Write a sequence for this structure.
């Protein structure tokens, strides 16, 4: 479980996050939604310590992340699997080397054991026998799946995903969404997905938080979202004709 | 300036895993050292030849001994041409490479990925490059001096310098400390080129355009610093 309490963040004079408090639940897919520039990526980067916060607390299962030393932060970060928007795979490493990398850095496993884990993770994301390909040889969907395989290679307690579906076709996007949800339930981990893709929200939204102008405007699950009367939320979620019709029919 | 020293403090920390550090070091030695041999040979050969020809054409006085051409070519190569000129060439070649490589990793979030894994990205990426350059540059410069002398011999022969005079000049009043001075300079240049270029790459913000800007800054700043330190070291060591 990850708890954020009264987070404030300013960039110069621009207040990006105002008094944000929320609980990201364990074993559930927690979604942060909002328009571009609403502060959701900033929140995700604050959660992993890539941005410092001005005020408030981030608590990882009782451990106050913003009050501990860099060394202790690194220990928590080893428990986090992160899926970046572009995958962030290391260009000069093969798929196998990318997934094996955290295992090589932080475990004393033999090459055979590491290879076994790599193959297990690749099988989990339906990419068997792609070990020797370079990231440049992968499609967008494959790239994301390899990034998921790398993120889960160390059995993380927390999985953080930044726009996992950006640039993917709807079918591949649903595959990625389902994979994230399955992994969350299978390993009982705390997953946070930062998205503005409404298909994802309808597919995997169990615990949703809507950020608007740096403030938590609304929170709930996908059923509550469809029936919500919140104007700003409705303007954002039902912006497209398709979702407007869905809302009417419900 | 402060950011550079802050980054260097992180760079100089103990590697997370030595096996990984040595694996990276081998790769960097191949990239920084082995891949630079070709350009060093070509430039050094022609510099040696041109220095010798220019000396020959400038010394027309029959009372000046012929071996002086070899002596001047030798000292010019050891003291200045090989460490400084090759240093500047390597600042362009290796500096831009390091800066663009690390800058691209920054804008594609690969450095963030390392940090989130709990890895000290500055140390993991930059330390092997600095160590590889410090190990490779002296060898490249010694090679440059040797090839420069061969170039001088060939260039001298083309304008009529006697081989025996040239070789006598090479051996005449040789001061071994000049080589020590050359190696000291080279090690300092290696550190400047790699650390300054890495700093500009590591602090890149934005996209592809900024990677290019960082790369240009890396070459310009490391070249200027190299020339400033060349002056300081020469003043401190030789005077």
């Amino acid at each position: 479980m990850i708890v954020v309490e009264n987070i404030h963040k300013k960039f110069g004079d621009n207040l990006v996050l105002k008094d944000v408090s929320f609980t990201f639940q364990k074993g559930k897919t927690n979604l942060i939604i909002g328009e571009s520039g609403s502060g959701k990526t900033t929140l995700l980067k604050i959660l992993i310590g890539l941005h410092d916060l001005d005020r408030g607390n981030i608590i990882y299962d009782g451990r106050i992340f913003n009050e501990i030393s860099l060394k202790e932060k690194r220990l928590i970060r080893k428990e986090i699997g992160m899926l970046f928007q572009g995958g962030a795979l290391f260009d000069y490493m093969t798929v196998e080397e990318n997934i094996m990398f955290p295992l090589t850095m932080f475990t004393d496993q033999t090459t055979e054991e590491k290879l076994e884990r790599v193959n297990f993770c690749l099988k989990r994301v339906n990419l068997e026998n792609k070990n020797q390909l370079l990231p440049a040889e992968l499609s967008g969907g494959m790239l994301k799946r390899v990034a998921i395989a790398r993120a889960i290679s160390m059995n993380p307690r927390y999985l953080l995903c930044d726009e996992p579906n950006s640039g993917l076709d709807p079918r591949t996007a649903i595959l990625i969404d389902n994979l994230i949800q399955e992994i969350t339930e299978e390993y009982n981990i705390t997953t946070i997905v930062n998205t503005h893709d409404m298909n994802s929200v309808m597919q995997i939204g169990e615990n949703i938080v809507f950020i608007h102008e740096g403030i938590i405007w609304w929170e709930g699950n996908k059923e509550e979202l469809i029936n919500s009367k919140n104007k700003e939320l409705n303007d954002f979620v039902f912006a497209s004709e398709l979702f407007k019709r869905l809302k009417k029919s419900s | 300036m402060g950011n550079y020293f802050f980054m260097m403090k992180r760079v100089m920390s103990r590697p997370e895993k030595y096996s990984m550090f040595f694996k990276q070091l081998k790769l960097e030695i191949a990239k920084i050292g082995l891949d630079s041999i070709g350009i060093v040979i070509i430039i050094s050969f022609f510099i040696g030849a041109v220095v010798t020809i220019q000396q020959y054409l400038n010394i027309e006085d029959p009372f000046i001994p012929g071996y002086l051409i070899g002596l001047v070519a030798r000292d010019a190569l050891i003291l200045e041409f090989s460490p400084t000129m090759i240093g500047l060439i390597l600042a362009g070649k290796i500096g831009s490479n390091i800066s663009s490589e690390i800058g691209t990793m920054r804008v594609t979030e690969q450095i963030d990925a390392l940090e989130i894994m709990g890895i000290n990205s500055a140390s993991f990426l930059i330390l092997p490059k600095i160590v590889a350059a410090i190990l490779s540059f002296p060898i490249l410069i010694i090679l440059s001096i040797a090839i420069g002398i061969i170039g001088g011999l060939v260039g001298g022969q083309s304008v009529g310098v006697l081989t025996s005079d040239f070789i006598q000049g090479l051996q005449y009043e040789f001061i071994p400390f000049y080589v020590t001075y050359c190696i000291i300079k080279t090690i300092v240049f290696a550190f400047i080129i790699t650390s300054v270029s890495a700093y500009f790459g590591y602090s890149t913000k934005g996209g592809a355009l900024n990677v290019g800007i960082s790369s240009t800054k890396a070459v310009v700043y490391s070249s200027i610093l190299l020339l400033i330190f060349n002056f300081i070291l020469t003043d401190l060591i030789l005077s």
